[in-house]
Design brief:
The protein has seven helices and no strands. The C terminus is likely disordered. With 205 residues, the chain is mainly alpha-helical.
C-alpha cells in the first residue's frame, strides 16, 4: 500500500482531520470554552489569546505532519512525498474554503477574488509541507519544522486577532496578510528546492 501514489494523499487528508481539526480545536475548546481561571485570563489579555490560538494551531498541525513524514512516510523519498501529501492536506482545505465562499453569496467579482486568494493560500500549505518533510529527512534542517510552526502560528494568530477586532483590519487587509504569509512559505520552499537535495535517501546528510 505504501507504494501507491494515493497513500500520501490519503495521509494528508487524515492528518488534517486529526491534527488540524480534532486535536487543535479540542485543545482550544478545553482552554477557551470551559469557564475556568485559564480561559478567564486568556479572554482578559487579547494579545496572549491570539498568540495562544496561533501557536496551538501551528504546533498541532506542523508537528503532527512532521510526525507523519517521520513515521508513516519514512520509506517515501524525494519531492513527490510532500507534494502528494500537500494535495490531500490542501485539497480538503480547498473544498471547505470554496464551499464557504459559495455559501456566503458573494458577487461574481468577489467570488473570483476570493477563489484566487484561497488558491494562493492553499499553495502556501504545500510550502509548509515541504518544510516539514525536509525537517523529517535531514537532521541539520529540523529547525524548518519550527519555522513552519512559527509561520502557521503568525498566520492563524493574526487572522484571529483581526476576527475578534484586536487588530483593526478590513477584509482586504486580512486577505493581503493571508497571501503574504502564504507567499513567504512558498518562497522558503523554493529555496529548499534549489539548495537541498531531497531525491534519494537524505537522512544521513
Amino acid at each position: 500500500m505504501k507504494h501507491k501514489k494515493w497513500y500520501p494523499i490519503l495521509l494528508g487528508i487524515i492528518s488534517l482531520i486529526i491534527f488540524g481539526l480534532v486535536l487543535s480545536n479540542g485543545i482550544q475548546a478545553l482552554f477557551l470554552l470551559v469557564d475556568w481561571p485559564v480561559s478567564q485570563f486568556l479572554y482578559a489579555t487579547p494579545l496572549i489569546l491570539c498568540i495562544f490560538v496561533g501557536l496551538i494551531q501551528g504546533i498541532c498541525e506542523e508537528a503532527g505532519y512532521y510526525y507523519v513524514f517521520s513515521r508513516h512516510l519514512k520509506t517515501w523519498k524525494g519531492w513527490k512525498t510532500p507534494l502528494l501529501f500537500g494535495v490531500g492536506r490542501s485539497g480538503l482545505h480547498l473544498i471547505f474554503d470554496i464551499s464557504s465562499i459559495i455559501a456566503i453569496g458573494y458577487s461574481t467579482n468577489q467570488i473570483l477574488l476570493s477563489v484566487v486568494i484561497v488558491l494562493v493560500s492553499n499553495i502556501g500549505l504545500f510550502g509548509l509541507s515541504i518544510m516539514d518533510y525536509t525537517a523529517s529527512r535531514i537532521h541539520r534542517f529540523k529547525w524548518l519544522c519550527g519555522l513552519a510552526i512559527i509561520i502557521h502560528a503568525i498566520l492563524n494568530g493574526g487572522l484571529y486577532a483581526m476576527e475578534i477586532g484586536y487588530i483593526s483590519a478590513g477584509i482586504n487587509d486580512s486577505n493581503m496578510f493571508r497571501v503574504s504569509m502564504s507567499l513567504l512559505a512558498v518562497a522558503i520552499a523554493f529555496i529548499i528546492y534549489k539548495k537541498v537535495k531531497l531525491d534519494g535517501d537524505t537522512k544521513t546528510i
